[in-house]
Predict the structure.
Amino acid sequence: MARYRMEQGPQGIAIELTDVAGRREELLAAFEECQSGQCTCPTDEYQKMASMDVGSTDDEIVLRLAAKPGARLDVDEISACLDYTVSKIERA
């Protein structure tokens, strides 16, 4: 089961997802949907996001979310979105 750790900074949120082996490609595809504006997460945080950078290794995915000028991303809402995405992939 994938686990994640978040760190909020002045420009946005950095997220490290670990233990993604076996589900890495599906998770990357889900995050690609978010990057392209087709996010299905149950939150409006996407409207506050200026950019989303995604990087990965075999067992880790790193996301960097940058907020739009004047906006601040809510860690609790981003956490709910990650929980939703991870559980959706693990059920598939």
